[in-house]
Amino acid sequence: MSDVAISLTSVRKSFGATEIIRGVDLDIPRGQRHAIIGPNGAGKTTLFNLISGRFPVTSGSIALNGTPIDGLAPHEINRRGLSRSFQITSIFPRMTVFENIRCGLLWARGYKYSFWRLLGRQKSLNAESERLLERLNLGARRNLPAGLLSYAEQRALEVGITIAGGADVVLLDEPTAGMSHSETDYAVSLIRSVTEGKTLLMVEHDMSVIFGLADVITVLVYGEVIASDVPSKIRANKAVQEAYLGTEAA
Amino acid sequence: MSADADSLPRVTPAAADMVTPRPFLREHWPWFVAILIAIVMPWFFFNWSTGRHSGFVLTMLSEIGLMTIFALSFNMQMGHTGLLSFGHAILFGLGGYCTAHALNAIKDGGVWLPTELVPLVGGVGGLFFGILFGYLATKQRATAFAMITMGMGELVAAAALMFMGFFGGEGGVSTNRVTGVSLLGASYSSSWQVYYLIVVWTVICVVAMRLQTMTPLGRMANACRDNFERAQFVGYDPRMVRFYQFVLSGFFAGIAGGLYAILYEIVTFDTVAAPKSATALLATYIGGAGGFFGPILGTILVVLLQSGVSLLSNAWLLYVGVLFIIMVMFAPGGIVGLIAAHAPIARIGRLRELVVPYIRVLIPGLMAVLGFIALVELASFTTIGASQGKKLALGGMAIDTATAMPWIVAAAALILGGFWLRREAAAFRRRWDALIDEAKAQGAAA
Amino acid sequence: MEVFLVSLLNGLVYGMLLFMLASGLTLIFSMMGVLNFAHASAYMLGAYFAFTISLYVGFWPALILAPLVCGLIGAAIEMYGLRRVHKNGHIAELLFTFGLALVIEKCVQMTWGLVAVPYRVPAGLDFPLFSVYGTNFHAYRAFMLLISALMFVSIWLALTRTRVGLIIQASLTHPEMVGALGHNVPRVFTLVFAGGTALAGLAGVIGGNYQVTEPSMAFAMGPIVFVVVVFGGLGSLTGCFIASLLMGLIQTFAIVLDYSLADLLKQFGITITSSTPFAEVLNVPIPRIGALLPYILLVLILLVKPRGLMGTRDT
């Protein structure tokens, strides 16, 4: 298996006449915790959408564990070991919390489109779902429709669904957005523990989260990478300071 | 659709499957009661002097049985997968045509198949056409899917009129269910035998469809309905989920069509036409599309209106339409939704406090409804009834639609009842909201 | 040649009639996302109202009054019905209009009876205008063309030259954004819904005596109009125009082309006998499948290009 989990080569993306991603080259080695930051409108979520197959690239290529994945449908990419969370919480609101987690496990455990196996009887599946539920600290909410959870709980659930299938490349899009201090701390420790040994790529705005979690930070401005380095070097990087604060302050 | 707490159903079906299993009978007693009722029902209409069952009642009950399967199969698409189909009847009718041809083949001695298993032919036919049409239709979702199914529905309905070979043209395909081939040695010449055959098949199909909702495909269908992007990122191709659900729903619709062929011994183009599809839609929506059992209630209501009211009134479709509109506007969860909404109040044990408000609402409501029905019937008899030579009679008293009096009385009932209802409804609403708030405060509803 | 020209003219007339119906529906569908099943019912009501009004005051006042009444009814439906249902989602709105269509059909049956009413072409226009190769082109058809052309031009002017028109245009493709910009979107919705319904009513006034005026005309015309709207694409009136003319021409020409697929195959030397598989299908003459062609096209375009011919938005 390749050393590089995700590899972007000269990736460009235009929507109509507007070019959002202007030639991004990025290699993320396996097991690395990588954060993408940048001002609003830089194209961070678009990059995620390109990697996860929601949109096709205009030019360039994207490879997952060495095999090219640009042009594949999202579910195909997911089956190759890449999973993601969304900026706006994306769960199954009408199903119970337990069911949400269980759905995250179904394909990975080989159930496919089976219409004859009763889920209630699948002991190991259900046990595994319970374990994951406990790990997310959502055991008490087990039978509640997921739409009725608090915001932070829903975000935690979404992280749970994202990693349930055992994908080794995990994309998290602003996982702590809208959370309070204590909720953020909890989310960070959760993310750290569930992505142990996996490759993590995340978009974040909260600097304390990033500096606490990331091994490498890439800064994206107007669809271009202006810096990609360890956190301490990024902090001191002039171009990054200018991008965020303007030339005056830097 | 946003995850608005008020629009979410309170029922949590499959979570129950993880609790320590209670004894089978205690857990599933409603099923047994329902089956018992179905078995015993015809005997309430037994004519003891002639020793015969009421043919009309048996036919209507049989219709309820097979339409239940049809409506539930429709809900596999609409309620469970979010696929609104305007052409579901084509799977029903094509299954019926296949069955009719099979019965004729058995009669001719070409094929051996006991009558008990004949509905399976319809099922296979529904499955086959489900694959054919489903492959195309499920390429899309939501409104595009609805439009494709509408187009397909019109196509098949028109084809049924045109082609003699398979469809028998305008006359349809006639058949005879008394083939002499039976596992139980029954001839199926009498309606009660057919009825019990339908009961057995209905139970089998309802149980099968219910169990299917608790399978991976069933749950992922719900998942794709609610959030297809998230479904993609747990590894499922929403298109395939839609396709398999469509095909399975075709199988059951085909069985319903097969039972239709056995019951009526003739299959014509109206079994594939838009009004048939509409019946499934109405029944499902009125009963409630969100859970599982709604379509059963809805079917019973619609068939009763269709068979019963249509004998008395020309305007039964108007009543169904108005009921439908009221449901869509005020009770989108259907009858089941309305009942489920009472759950939080029941949980805090204060259901009794709604009895008086309900009575206070029901009286003006009844008045307004009766006024409305009276107006409709008056109008109906003036135009349609007159051309059919019928006269309006209420309890033996003939009512002359040409005079002003009946109209004034009816209009007064409707208008006065309406205003009174509005006042009482507002008061009811206040009471209801207060009780729901109480329930929320006590944690019985979130 | 004569057949071609005559059919061309007739196809144009029918196509323009379809456009009058479909344009209102495209506007409503594009802006509000509501597939209005009751749209064809407005067409039917227009015809019936015109019939009744013309019994008392003649055709010409009916031409103005009937669409107005339809428009008012449309406004009432939007304000008291649709707006309420809107929060329950698009499918609920669709079902609401579906129920409405059922109820309207029944009401029409109860008010005017089950049999077609004798809604005739007005005496003032009941003469042949000119002759094409021996076949008369009726003056009324020219009148229909005139009205639909006038209507098309006035809609176009209203949409492109007035402020409200610009708002409507924007709402066709970006309804949420228009609301976010502070325009009174609900009032615009009511206006568009009422306008679309009035347009359908107008189509009924002039189409009702061209075709037969009976209670089932709504459910007969409805599906074809849907096909046109979906085929033409969401957000595009031009697409709707092209699709309407296309459908009109296809349906008119289909009636005159009395051939079948078997005849076509014969050109290639392949003879179909009664024992050939699918012989029945191949022997069906085109006029008989004329009614099917719009649906075949609908299914095809939804599979190939679900946005429609010139659609700018997804459904």
The most extensive contact between chains is: B-C, 46 and 46 residues
Number of strands of chain A: 10
What is the count of DSSP helices of chain C, taking H or I runs of 4+ residues?
14
Mean pLDDT score of chain A: 88
- Largest sheet, strands/sense/barrel of chain C: 2 strands, antiparallel
Q: What is the helix tally of chain A?
A: 9
Task: Tell me briefly what this model is.
The complex is a heterotrimer of chains A (250), B (446) and C (315). Chain A has nine helices and ten strands. Chain A has helices at residues 44-51, 74-79, 97-106, 123-135, 151-164, 181-194, 207-213, 231-236, 238-249, and strands spanning 4-15, 18-29, 33-37, 59-64, 67-68, 82-84, 169-173, 199-203, 216-221, 224-229.
Written overview of the protein:
The complex is a heterotrimer of chains A (250), B (446) and C (315). Chain A is α/β, with parallel strands linked by helices and 250 residues long. In chain A, 36% of the residues lie in helices and 25% in strands. Chain A has a six-stranded mixed β-sheet, with helices on both faces. A four-stranded antiparallel β-sheet of chain A has the order 2-1-4-5, with helices on one face. In chain A, helix 3 crosses helix 4 and helix 3 packs parallel to helix 5. Chain A starts with a strand and ends with a helix. In chain B, 68% of the residues lie in helices and 3% in strands. Chain B has helices at residues 24-27, 29-40, 55-81, 89-107, 118-137, 142-162, 164-167, 191-212, 216-226, 228-232, 238-264, 274-287, 294-312, 316-330, 334-341, 343-347, 355-388, 404-441, and strands spanning 46-47, 52-53, 173-174, 266-267, 393-394, 397-398. A two-stranded antiparallel sheet of chain B has the order 1-2. A two-stranded antiparallel ribbon of chain B has the order 3-4. In chain B, a hairpin with a 4-residue loop joins strand 1 and strand 2 (52-53). Chain B is globular. Chain B starts with 23 loop residues before the first helix and ends in a 5-residue tail after the last helix. Chain C has 315 residues and is mainly alpha-helical. Chain C has a two-stranded antiparallel ribbon. In chain C, strand 1 (128-132) and strand 2 form a beta hairpin. In chain C, helix 1 packs parallel to helix 5 (139-161) and helix 2 (39-57) packs antiparallel against helix 3 (59-85). The radius of gyration of chain C is 21 Å and the shape is globular. The two termini of chain C are 41 Å apart. Chains in contact: A-B, B-C. Chains B and C meet through helix 6, helix 12, helix 14 and helix 17 of B and helix 3, helix 4, helix 9 and helix 14 of C.
